[in-house]
Design brief:
disordered N terminus; alpha+beta; two-stranded antiparallel ribbon; 35 helices; nine-stranded antiparallel β-sheet
């Protein structure tokens, strides 16, 4: 993952800096009014996750389930994490070295233990003992224990591939310029912390156990690896049932019964020639059980057990940038779930276990034989379909329909959206396509033309939202209508509809159009609609969101409470009582992740929205203590101090932040606004310019800088900045309005009329835009 994504998007429980001031909590998403897939997050358990069941360990399963146990013993789940021993360590600890800039790291053994000499928390070379191995293929990382219970993932890994495939070597996961020991991505820092970033998915029955008072972890687990009960739930009741003299009744004591595929067959429909499930899938137990780890998500509570609603403990990310391309293809590391949910396969009822053997973790067949278990080989595994020589790489189903993207330098992961290659969408949106990933020396236009020759038209796939999502990401006003059509369509998968709602949070939509999403059967949809409601007037928010304070799913309740926090005075007495109860859940989620600066800031915003300024200040200052280089802590604290104390206090905090994060556009922008309010316009303009230069992708920064230039007597420079911003953001209304106004003022009426016409074309229903154009005609 690139640096910005790791710093901003890796923690999905977090948020982005909102414009100038407040840093809000990250939001995920939900499905149709009873249409499409079964509701994710509804209770899927057949045994209702009995709280009395306890974990007994994988060995307790072996006696009765020997075949499954032996298959699991060969799996990557079994090797997800292991104590560092001769049996588990794959790397060469024989004095081997790796040089990265001026640091030489050495891997060696001492007294039968494994050590690395490398730069530590203070930047100096020191010896660190490897406590555990982490993963196995195609690379293995190593965990090192630092004070206060922190396990840290070393960012030098061992390539476990065969030597003739480029493996059997040490390599850096960050091969660019060496990271300083103070960098958040350095192996000793928060972005490499196992307790938060990794533990929940690499071991069984993990409890993070972070103590904020001592800033220490006491993390525990039942099995060090991903064992039987990680998927089947605590097994004590099932073991008791198996050992009982008589087995009366139908309750076998399982926490969750993964039976969605039992007795299911797939057959070709003679009419459509498509494969059809013998009985519709009516639950999402298996997919949600896998999604807990095979998804990009944030964790909002401890203690998940298989069979519990996924969204009571996690918030999955939706198909938004920069995690996904506009057409839904994986861009950042998203771990399958979001990709798969948007696919035709998921829509038809396929589950993970239809293709993957769950115990060994292997595919159920090799090559194209996996696909032709359901899709007729005569029709699909033939040159007439794939248009490549039968033995070529292009004849592979996954080459076209599941192209791979490489993460962690060498780990190629296939896109599970199972899509039709669309080079025409590459031309329209810039998203990649499978054709030119193989034919790297050819253009997307060539690929699109070739597909048209084959088919007589452009290809058509199941995913049909790319243009709308691209237009929304480019902030084009025409996107609103398209997004609403997708969000309210009964034919789109839930995650697609929820992603449309997420984009409407920025694009804007009448509150009345969100009501159906707020009532939807799927919690992803309800979450998405709540996010879109963030731009609505407070009165509409209170009326529409208050019922969701009583939602059966925790993630939805928390989102509703966050949305309503600034306007609780508008709630009825009964709704306010419910809000107070849900507030405890919001705070508990924040406390669970109190080891993260983004969580402390998010909780601080929640307190500030309710006027609890002392609590908010405490959270912001805690975020700064945890991560002195984290701009949102300073930005939000400065705004709080500005409102409750003085502008000079705010300025002091922002300048302190810039000593730790001098390249933060958000800090420079906030400081620029502070200086504007202090009437120090020359200094303010310098800071606003710096923000605009550092973050040209943020149109508001360019707009504000241009206004500052204009107001300090530099109209020509202001118009140059606005024209450059318009080239990057052709649909930005504020930039266009300012440009028209400044051009008219400067007497350049031709340019003003041209941009006014552009404004009206893009915002045909905007009365102010039409009035501006009419004024120029006089």
């Amino acid at each position: 993952m690139n640096r910005r994504l790791l710093l901003v998007a890796a923690i999905l429980g977090a948020a982005a800096i909102g414009g100038a001031v407040a840093w809000r909590a990250w939001r995920p998403s939900p499905t149709p009014d009873g249409a499409g897939e079964p509701a994710s997050g509804a209770s899927n358990s057949t045994a209702a996750a009995d709280a009395s069941a306890t974990y007994v360990g994988a060995e307790a399963c072996a006696g009765c389930h020997r075949d499954a146990y032996d298959a699991w013993r060969t799996s990557q789940h079994r090797e997800a994490m292991q104590p560092a021993t001769a049996a588990s360590v794959k790397g060469r600890f024989d004095g081997s070295q790796l040089r990265h800039d001026d640091i030489v790291s050495t891997f060696f053994q001492r007294d039968g233990r494994y050590w690395v000499r490398t730069d530590g928390p203070d930047g100096a070379l020191a010896d660190f003992e490897v406590r555990d191995t982490f993963g196995v293929s195609p690379l293995q990382q190593y965990l090192i224990e630092l004070p206060n219970g922190r396990l840290q993932a070393l960012s030098i890994a061992w390539d476990t591939r065969p030597k003739d495939a480029g493996g059997q070597r040490w390599f850096s996961l960050y091969p660019g310029p060496r990271l300083a020991h103070t960098d958040p991505l350095h192996w000793t820092q928060r972005m490499q912390n196992w307790n938060f970033m990794c533990a929940d998915c690499h071991s069984t029955d993990v409890r993070k156990n972070y103590d904020a008072a001592s800033d220490s972890f006491h993390t525990t687990w039942r099995d060090i690896d991903v064992a039987c009960e990680a998927c089947h739930g605590p097994g004590s009741r099932h073991v008791a049932w198996a050992q009982a003299a008589t087995r009366a009744g139908s309750d076998n004591g399982l926490t969750v019964d993964l039976t969605e595929r039992r007795g299911v067959t797939w057959a070709i429909d003679p009419a459509t020639k498509n494969v059809v499930r013998s009985t519709p899938r009516t639950t999402t137990r298996e997919i949600e059980m896998c999604a807990r780890c095979h998804s990009r998500r944030s964790q909002i509570a401890d203690g998940y057990r298989p069979g519990a609603p996924l969204l009571d403990f996690y918030e999955p990310a939706t198909l938004t940038s920069p995690l996904y391309y506009a057409d839904g293809q994986q861009q950042d590391e998203v771990y399958i779930y979001g990709s798969f949910l948007q696919s035709r396969m998921a829509h038809a009822g396929v589950t993970c276990g239809d293709c993957h053997e769950p115990h060994a973790g292997t595919l159920r067949a090799d090559g194209n034989a996996l696909c032709t278990r359901c899709h007729a080989a005569a029709r699909y595994d033939a040159p007439a379909h794939h248009h490549h020589a039968a033995t070529s790489a292009g004849a592979s189903c996954v080459a076209c329909h599941m192209p791979a993207r490489t993460y962690m330098q060498i780990d190629a992961r296939r896109d599970h959206s199972l899509r039709v290659p669309r080079p025409d969408l590459t031309i329209a949106t810039g998203a990649p396509n499978a054709c030119t990933q193989c034919h790297a020396n050819r253009s997307a236009s060539w690929a699109a033309s070739t597909v048209r020759q084959w088919l007589g038209r452009d290809a058509v796939g199941f995913q049909d939202f790319a243009i709308a999502f691209h237009d929304a990401d480019e902030r084009r006003p025409s996107a609103v209508t398209s997004l609403l059509a997708i969000a309210t369509s009964a034919n789109e998968p839930a995650i697609v509809r929820a992603s449309a709602f997420d984009r409407l949070a920025d694009a804007g939509a009448p509150a009345s159009t969100l009501a159906s999403g707020l009532r939807d059967i799927d919690p992803l949809m309800r979450l998405g609609a709540l996010h879109a409601l963030a731009q609505a007037p407070p009165a509409d928010q209170a009326a529409l969101a208050a019922p969701l304070l009583s939602d059966p799913v925790r993630a939805v309740r928390i989102a509703a409470a966050r949305l309503l926090a600034p306007s609780t005075s508008r709630l009825t007495d009964s709704d306010r009582a419910v809000f107070d109860r849900v507030s405890a859940e919001v705070i508990a989620a924040g406390r669970f992740n109190a080891d993260r600066p983004e969580s402390r800031v998010s909780l601080g915003v929640f307190f500030a929205d309710q006027g609890r300024t002392a609590n908010a200040e405490a959270e912001y200052r805690a975020a700064i203590r945890l991560a002195p280089d984290f701009p949102p802590g300073y930005v939000n604290l400065a705004e709080l101090l500005r409102a409750t104390r003085s502008e000079s206090d705010a300025e002091q905090i922002l300048r302190a932040g810039l000593t730790h994060a001098p390249a933060s556009a958000d800090l420079h922008f906030a400081l620029g606004l502070s200086l504007v309010r202090a009437h120090r316009t020359t200094d303010a303009t310098t800071e606003l310019q710096r923000a605009s230069d550092l973050a040209p992708q943020v149109s508001r920064y360019a707009y504000t800088y241009a206004v500052a230039l204009h107001d300090t007597g530099q109209p020509a420079a202001a118009m140059r900045v606005l024209r450059a911003a318009l080239a990057r953001h052709p649909g930005d209304r504020d930039v266009l309005v300012a440009l028209v106004t400044f051009e008219q003022e400067a007497g350049d009426l031709a340019a003003a009329r041209e941009h006014a016409a552009q404004l009206v074309r893009q915002y045909p229903d905007d009365a102010d835009a039409r009035a501006l154009q009419q004024d120029l005609r006089r």
